[in-house]
Write a structure and sequence with these properties.
CATH architecture: Orthogonal Bundle
Number of domains: 1
Distance between the termini: 45 Å
Shape: globular
Strand content: under 5%
Largest sheet: none
CATH topology: Helix Hairpins
Number of helices: 5
Number of strands: 0
Structural class: mainly alpha
Radius of gyration: 17 Å
CATH superfamily: MazG-like
Length: about 130
C-alpha cells in the first residue's frame, strides 16, 4: 500500500477533518528513514514533492486548462495528491524539529495577520 493510499484510508476512517496534531501523529507512524538523516531526509523530500506540484502547474500553463470537466477534475486530484505528499514532509520535518505542526500553522497565521494589518503583505523579506 502506498503512502497516499494509507493517508486516504486513514482520512476515510477518521473523516475528512482532523487537527494538525492528529495528522502529525499519524505521519510519525509512517516516517521510516535512517536516524542519521533526520532533518535532511524530510527537507529534501519536501523540495522534491513541491517540485512535483510546480511541475503539474507548469504543464497547465504550457498546455492550458483542460476544457473537459473530467480532465480538469483529474488534474486537480493529482495536484491534491502531491499536496498531501508536501504536507507529509512538512509534518515529518516539524516532528524532527520537535515542533508542533499546529503551532507552525498558528505562528504563520499570526505573522500573516500582522503583515496584513500593517499593509505589509506585499514585498519581500522575513522582517516586514
Amino acid at each position: 500500500m502506498t503512502l497516499q493510499d494509507e493517508v486516504k484510508k486513514f482520512m476515510e476512517e477518521k473523516g475528512a477533518a482532523m487537527t494538525f496534531e492528529e495528522y502529525q501523529k499519524f505521519c510519525k507512524t509512517t516516517a521510516i528513514y535512517p536516524e542519521g538523516t533526520r532533518l535532511m531526509y524530510p527537507a529534501l523530500g519536501l523540495t522534491g514533492e513541491a517540485g512535483e506540484v510546480a511541475n503539474k502547474i507548469k504543464k497547465l500553463v504550457r498546455d492550458g486548462v483542460p476544457k473537459e470537466r473530467k480532465d480538469l477534475d483529474s488534474i486537480k486530484e493529482q495536484i491534491a495528491a502531491e499536496l498531501g505528499d508536501v504536507l507529509w514532509y512538512c509534518a515529518a520535518l516539524a516532528s524532527d524539529l520537535d515542533v508542533s505542526l499546529g503551532r507552525v500553522a498558528k505562528n504563520n497565521m499570526d505573522k500573516l495577520t500582522s503583515r496584513k494589518e500593517r499593509g505589509k503583505i506585499g514585498g519581500s523579506g522575513d522582517n516586514r
